[in-house]
Amino acid sequence: MRGSERLGIISVRRDGPLRDVALALEAGAIGIALVIDARGALVATLTDGDLRRAFIAGFDLATPVTEGLAGSGGADTAPIQASDATSRRDLLAIMQRHAIRQIPLHDTSGRVTGIVTLADLTLPDSLAPRALIMAGGFGKRMGSLTATTPKPLLPVAGRPLIERLVLHLRSAGITRIHVSVHHLAERITDHLGDGTRFDVTIEYVREPEPLGTAGAIGYLPQEDLPLLVLNGDLLTNADLRGMVKFHRETSAVLTMGVRAHEQQVPFGVVNCDGHHVHSLVEKPTYRHLVNGGIYLLEPEVCARIERGAHTDMPEVIASLLAEMRRVSAFPLRDSWLDVGRPDDYERAQSQALALDAPARSMRDCVA
Length: 367
What we know:
This protein is an alpha/beta fold. Helices cover 31% and strands 27% of the residues.
C-alpha cells in the first residue's frame, strides 16, 4: 500500500498523551500526525500548529489527545482523506483544492492504510528533467482538421492537446519545457507564450525544416540533465514521475515508454515446417509492446544528435543497442492515446472527459 511504511511512525491513539503526537511529528518529519481509533479509522490529523494551540490553551504533554484536540480546534472539522485506490492525478487535485500537502489513505472498511505527500507525487527540482514536446509535424493524416490548425492545438474536450501535455508535465514537477515547432508555428507560440499562465517556463525550437522525431534535440543547449521527450499528439496521464525514477534505478542511457498492444488474427494460423503442417491455432491473439512516444534521454545521448541533422528516435535507439548500451522499457499503464487519425481524435473526446472528471468530491474524500 502507498505510504504504509510511515504509518506506524506517525499514528497515535486517541486515548494516548499529546507527548505521542509530538514524538510522531518529529519522527515522521512530514508535518502531520494521524489520530487513529481502536478499529484503525482516522479520527483527526494534527500538525505542529495544532500542538502549539493546545499548549497555548493550557494543556501539556501528558494531556490525553482527545482533550488536546478539543483545545486546538482539531476536533471541529472532519479530516480530509481518500481511498487508497484514488489515482495520483485525483490526489494532486485534492491537495490543490484544499491547499494541503499530505493525504491519509483508507481501505473500503475505513481503516487507514497509508499516507501520501505532495513530495511523493511530484519531482523535486533537483531530479526533474527538462522536457521537449515535439509539435512541428504537419499532421497530414488528420486531413482537413489540420489545414489551418496544427495538430497539437486541436481541442480535446475544450482544451488543446499540447496544453494538456504542458499541464501534465507541471503536475509531475517538470516545469522547464521546450517545444519544437515548424508547421503553423506562430499558432502554437501565440497560444502557449512563455508558459507563465501555466506556471512553467517554455522555450521554442524552430525547425527550419522537418527534422524527424529526434532532430530538434540537436538545437537544445547541452545541460547535465536528462531530457524527457514527448510526441505532441499524445493524450495521456502517464506516470512521468515513475518513469524518471525507473530510468534512474535501471541506470539506462535511454528509457522509452511502451504500451501493451493486442492483435487478434481473424483466421486460423497455420504453422508449417516446409510443407508439413505442425500446428493450427484458431484466431490467436498476439501481444506486443509498442512505442508510446515518450522517451527519457541522458545528456550523452542528446549530445549525439547533430544540429540541423534529420534524426528519428528509432535511429538513436538502434545505435545505442548496437553499442550494447542500456535501453530500458517503462510500461505506460495509465491512460494513453496517440491522436494520429480522425477516428483517434473522436475517441480522444470521450477519453478526455474521463480524464477531466472532477477529483472525488469532499464527501468522497472525507470520512
